């Protein structure tokens, strides 16, 4: 039964219309004209104003064929925004002098209310947006659909790290399941995060429909950072998928380089649901684990830096404030910290952490009031700002009365040494050792930095030596996330570490 959303007004999300250049490219590259002329039915399940359907019709006419009624009967338009559907129908009539088949236009939310339709080919540009960025009401409606599609194994995942699941993943799985015939094919422009980022999209990379039947990832064309949509920096590619088939690795993987498609191969690493690792077409996939994996204690897993949850102005200072006790101020890493010649330089900024150094938990109110009264008064002055921070994790602290808490703080934050690296937007992996400044351990700055906590300088040197192996850089480059927010985040580095339980200390 379809979900009734008539009461819910949802603004279009992730709605960027496909430029005709790229719709034409997809139609030509995957031979969709030949398939359509040979009797295959084609549908754009999130059609917008119909770029893919116009590309098909234009190329048929350019090839000397006509848009016969029989041909058009095998073309389908699905779009949940009525205004876009009307615009498409008007444009189609003006452009070709004939109406688009009325019965082949479906104004529906393809996730919540897919039409009773089975086609041979799907082609389109599904809307893309992180689950966490969707309107609240729409999120609640979509949650069970993400779960039933196997994109999130636990409801809680949608509140934590997996809130980065992209709406496009759900659209693809739903359309493959509900609209495509067995052995049917699909061509979608998709965010490359579905294939290259850690964590959130592991469920999608099982390439299984809700009933457990497979669909195959056959080929990827990576636009290599070229801007596909005006004003959008998201990385995109084209995925060629096939229903009722199993993915066989390595898959062909093409990279756009100065208008030339360079042929490569891609294999997930280190397991089948991991991000793709890209290698040259004439080379075998590298077993990076055998080259670069090393042992650490379980409590030394890589971490992101301290997260203020949007309150940087409250917790981060350019100059040392005299109203915050020195024992609650910590040096904060920045770009200068990663210049080898200056890694022991004095910090340019510091961060206020009202947390206990042993447990990592926020200091209790009575402790702040009695031991650090000036810091408590400062927090009270900014109470409204801190209470207005959003996010389920910070909300859990607020619900317990600790509205001054920060995230990413634990016993590991106060380790005397850290091996730290730039995890966001970098292209080279350059770990450095940061010890203490005036007795206070250095802190990483949110997702910009990641680190491994260490007990001694010698231990830090050993960890740094492992991470400095040249193949670590190659491992990261194989993920094709250079310069992005997912360059060397903790989850990616965690893949090359073998963890062992230890009761020796807190970090």
How would you characterize the overall build of this protein?
This protein is α/β, with parallel strands linked by helices and 507 residues long. The chain folds into 2 domains: 224 residues, Rossmann fold, CATH 3.40.50; 204 residues, no CATH class. Helices cover 27% and strands 20% of the residues. Helix 11 crosses helix 12. The chain starts with 19 loop residues before the first helix and ends in a 7-residue tail after the last strand. The N terminus is likely disordered.
Short characterization:
This protein has about 500 residues and is of the alpha/beta class. Helix content is about 25%, strand content about 20%.
Compile the SSE list and pairings.
Blueprint: H1 20-29, H2 32-37, E1 42-44, H3 51-62, H4 69-72, E2 75-78, H5 82-96, E3 105-106, E4 119-124, H6 136-148, H7 167-178, E5 180-191, H8 193-196, E6 215-222, E7 236-243, E8 251-257, E9 260-268, E10 276-280, H9 288-292, E11 294-297, E12 303-304, H10 312-315, E13 316-317, E14 329-332, E15 349-352, H11 365-371, H12 373-381, H13 383-387, H14 392-398, E16 417-422, E17 432-434, E18 436-437, E19 440-441, E20 449-454, H15 457-467, H16 470-478, H17 490-494, E21 497-500
Parallel strand pairs: 1-2, 1-4, 2-3, 4-5, 6-8, 11-21
Antiparallel strand pairs: 5-7, 6-7, 8-9, 9-10, 12-20, 13-15, 14-15, 16-17, 16-20, 18-19
